[in-house]
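for the recovery benchmark. tokens below, seq after
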């Protein structure tokens, strides 16, 4: 029997966010070969959404085969909390219809011949930036923190070159930290870091600062567009969010002493409108020697961060890396 000769081995990535979901095929070097995106519709039950996801992934696999590629793994990046090894979601605040979903088992049933790897989106983003983004080529880099700063706020913690998962796989759920007794609600908690520094948090912060202009239901895209257009009131909101971002980062800098903190998503779009006050506040709040050792930068992968993060759960696996290197 003649063995099929494939052109290259690739990985299929599934990136599930609170707003959008993407399916990609990528090489071991994080080159995106194909991509499809849909709205997540997070409020809908998982059972209503899952068939659409399977259809997207099936079409991605068919096209991959047509191009002569060999898909060797399915890798998932998704917001938590979740039991990573089991692939079970535990009441994710931005995917309310997904509580208790055994995602790894469901994907294995649909794609029984593919190994399934699932990672928290913060950890996946940290790995993506460490290997392919802001940390690429930095041989002395061992300690990096990635902050998602998208619909919600989560972190990926790389300490001594390894992802820190914690005893219950919840290390990095920094959006749950309370920064003030009063303030916007995020992660179900008033005054949480996510309440002050996330997509939903920005809107609520704007509604508190300028209630005649914005409500808690105002579209985040509209607010961000006003910030990018340098609207004075919108810039005040961005600056205030940056201050709270700096206060949160000070806790991480003093506790974990990272070499680099990378901010994704909204921070990439807003740039110094967020970074200026964030860095200033960090310098005021954290230990000087810890601040001096830490760079605060936007995601080096820019808008590609979600796509690359989606394949990192597989690329971080020893068996997959060995298979790719031998292929």
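predicted aa per position
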């Amino acid at each position: 029997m003649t063995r099929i000769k494939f052109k290259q081995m690739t990985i299929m990535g599934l990136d599930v966010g609170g707003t959008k979901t993407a399916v990609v095929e990528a090489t071991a070097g994080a080159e995106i070969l194909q991509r499809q995106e849909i709205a997540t519709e997070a409020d809908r039950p998982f059972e209503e959404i899952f068939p659409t996801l399977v259809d997207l992934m099936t079409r991605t696999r068919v096209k991959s085969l047509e191009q002569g590629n060999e898909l060797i793994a399915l890798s998932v990046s998704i917001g938590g909390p979740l039991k990573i090894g089991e692939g079970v979601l535990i009441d994710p605040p931005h995917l309310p219809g997904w509580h208790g979903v055994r995602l790894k088992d469901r994907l294995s049933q649909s794609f029984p011949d593919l190994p399934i790897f699932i990672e928290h989106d913060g950890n996946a983003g940290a790995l993506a930036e460490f290997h392919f983004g802001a940390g690429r080529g930095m041989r002395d880099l061992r300690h990096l923190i990635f902050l998602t700063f998208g619909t919600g706020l989560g972190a990926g913690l790389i300490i001594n070159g390894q992802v820190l998962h914690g005893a219950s796989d919840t290390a990095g759920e920094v959006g749950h930290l309370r920064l003030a007794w009063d303030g916007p609600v995020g992660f179900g908690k008033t005054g949480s870091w996510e309440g002050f520094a996330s997509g939903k948090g920005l809107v609520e912060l704007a509604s508190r600062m300028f209630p005649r202009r914005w409500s808690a239901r105002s579209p985040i895209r509209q607010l961000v567009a006003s910030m990018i257009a340098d609207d004075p009131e919108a810039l005040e909101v961005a600056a205030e969010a940056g201050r709270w971002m700096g206060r949160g980062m000070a806790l991480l800098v003093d506790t974990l002493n990272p070499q680099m903190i990378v901010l994704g998503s909204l921070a990439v779009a807003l740039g110094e409108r967020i970074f200026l006050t964030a860095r200033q506040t960090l310098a005021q709040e954290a230990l000087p020697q810890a601040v001096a050792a830490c760079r605060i930068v936007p995601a080096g992968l820019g808008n590609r961060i979600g796509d690359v993060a989606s394949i990192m759960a597989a690329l971080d696996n020893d068996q997959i890396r060995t298979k790719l290197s031998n292929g």
